[in-house]
Write a structure and sequence with these properties.
There is one protein chain. The chain is an all-beta fold. It has 2 domains: 7-24 and 145-272, Beta Barrel (Lipocalin), CATH 2.40.128; 38-141. The protein is 3% helix and 62% strand.
């Protein structure tokens, strides 16, 4: 891979500011609380590790009593990264307030199946059966509060430019530098990337747009402009999707375009910088 491949192209890609994201080594990470916003009161907890998910479905039975079902081994259908299925169980066990807990008293009973088809990173079709009764629902990630990404980071971007004019601007791009991110109280985000271009010139890209939250996942869509040595270089639009943040940094998936390339697709990650003395 070329480092800082072409100054302008690198700048454009830098717009990729915030990116690989919210993913396991197998697929998008679907770990979250999922629900139907028109039917608040029931939902599905999913925890994903690699290609396997554990699901806890909390619904209501006949007589409006609470019912819980679990699926301990939800696996991909074939080689799919968006379709998963598994067996659904109902369990009984020892009284929760009894002294000690005897796992030998836990009794799982197979009651049906569960299937999930993710239409995008934040939406899925849930189909499950319990004792022959099939239910089909559309579910989304449930959101309580927005993450705040404000901070100073050290990180970089890898991306591929395509459909470019001139054509030699296409190809792999790698940038690395200081990232600063400011997020306002109304979730407007301004991101700056400062780095040195392939011509050893001070360069900067500024990205601006609203931040939106979907469960554990965030996204930013907006516009960006870049300069080399204080001179305007390129500008375009971008979306950073599947943003995942933690105490250590953030990462997401980038897609954008500018006057040189119709598409930039890549990943970006940043670790929080330490405060200088």
């Amino acid at each position: 891979m070329k480092i800082l491949h072409r100054a302008l192209a690198a700048l454009a890609a830098a717009a990729a500011l915030a990116m690989p994201a919210y993913a396991t080594t197998y697929s998008v990470d679907y770990t979250d609380l999922w629900y139907n916003p028109n039917e608040s009161g029931w939902g599905l907890n999913l925890i994903q590790q690699g290609q396997t998910m554990f699901g806890t479905l909390f619904v209501y039975g006949v007589g409006t009593t609470a019912q819980w079902f679990v699926a301990s081994d939800i696996e991909p259908v074939g080689t799919s990264t968006t379709q998963f299925s598994g067996q659904l169980f109902q369990t009984s066990g020892p009284y929760f307030a009894a002294p000690g807990f005897d796992p030998n008293q836990v009794r799982p009973v197979t009651v049906g199946t569960i299937g999930l088809t993710f239409t995008d990173a934040n939406t899925a079709i849930l189909i499950y059966t319990v004792n022959g009764q099939q239910v089909t629902k559309t579910v989304t990630r449930q959101t309580w509060r927005n993450d705040n990404l404000s901070g100073t980071y050290i990180g970089g971007l890898t991306a591929i430019g395509s459909s470019c004019n001139p054509s030699d601007y296409a190809g792999p791009i790698l940038i690395f530098g200081e990232l600063t991110l400011a997020q306002s109280s109304n979730n407007q985000v301004t991101m700056n990337v400062q780095f040195t271009s392939s011509a050893n010139q001070a360069s900067q890209c500024t990205y601006q747009g609203p931040y939106t939250q979907a469960g554990r996942s965030g996204s930013i869509s907006g516009t960006y402009a870049c300069n080399i040595n204080g001179q305007s270089a390129n500008a375009g639009s971008f979306t950073v999707s599947r943003i995942q943040s933690s105490l250590d940094g953030f990462m997401g998936h980038f897609n954008g375009q500018d006057q040189y390339c119709a598409s930039y697709d890549g990943q970006f990650g940043g670790v929080l910088d330490v405060p200088l003395p």
